Amino acid sequence: LGDSNGIRVGDWVMAIGNPFGLGGSVTAGIVSARGRNIHAGPYDDFIQTDASINKGNSGGPLFNLDGQVIGINTAIYSPSGGSVGIGFSVPSNIAKTVIADLKEFGRTRRGWLGVRIQEVSEELAETLGLDSPRGALVTSVAEDGPAADAKVENGDVIISFNGRDVPEMRKLPRIVAETEVGKSVDMVVWRKGKEKILKVKVGELEEAEKDGSVLAQDNTPQPTSAQTVKELGIELGELNDELRERFGLKEDQKGIVITDIVTDGPAAEKGIRAGEVILEVNQKEVSTLSEVRALVKEAKVKDDGKKSVLLLVDGQQGIRFVVVTFEAQ
Q1: Can you list the pairs that 191-194 forms with residues at least 24 positions away whose Cβ atoms lie under 8 Å?
Q2: pLDDT at position 10
């Protein structure tokens, strides 16, 4: 097995396999791309090659010019069913960790952090004070998980893990999965305009799945009447039995419910819908309508020219951060 991290786009490679039952077929080509995400799972990091790969090639080796296996042929893109010059291989360095786990434990073991994350857009980066869109934005933290033990907070942006930069959200699950289970590592997060180093002990994903570890919610606040926040174009209500039943919310849901929305308002333009729940405003938890209104008012009087709020919203799309801009009224 060779070092798949050492290959470059344009390097020559050779594939050996059993296409259509024709055993021992050899094809040659180049590396077309690295780090391809083909939406096969959360750990996608495929090598793309134009060496002919067809049905029956799966599991076959992809060699470099030194005769080292740098990939395991896995998938093709093929509207016709045959090779169109777009094939994908699992990098050998990923295979090495799987092989080592199978030898030692008889099963695969993946690192687990215990967070839900989302992509950092340009708008979110600007709002959070990041110099560029990078990292993975934490939307919620699993109770009793490794991240919770490390004091990770909602709104943290994970920009480095175990000495490896996190240039985009989808890179983090793979980096964590490849980290040795039980190892304590440094994790750099961006929190309220500053970098902060946290020490986290990596958990095991398979054990967490077996235990049924979930992201828990706190107790609900007391109900009061609904109010309109004109700046955002939404009507809000504090949680009560009627709203839980009306929008199908769980008993342990927390936050402020969006009861109605102006169809052409600022919140609606960002895809926010009635029935979703606001958990935070500008990275501060909210449990009352007055807290929401105060934080929106605070955003209105800023002198930096920005009239926007960062909302943490829980809805049909899961928990996510949304930047809502508005006109000062």
Answers
A1: 191/153, 191/155, 191/156, 191/157, 192/155, 192/283, 193/128, 193/129
A2: 96
The pair phi, psi for residue 5, each rounded to 5°, is -70, -15
- 286 φ, ψ to 5°? -125, 140
Q: Region of 283 please: left (phi>0), alpha (psi -120 to 50) or beta.
A: left
Question: What are the pLDDT digits (tens) for 41-66?
Answer: 777 889 999 999 998 899 999 999 99
What's the whole-model pTM score? 0.62
Query: For residue 33, what is the enclosing H or E element?
Result: strand 25-36
**For residue 5, what is the DSSP state?**
G
Q: What does the pLDDT read at residue 212?
A: 59
List Cα–Cα distances, 192 to 128, 154, 224, in angstroms: 7, 11, 31
Give the chain's largest Cα–Cα span: 73
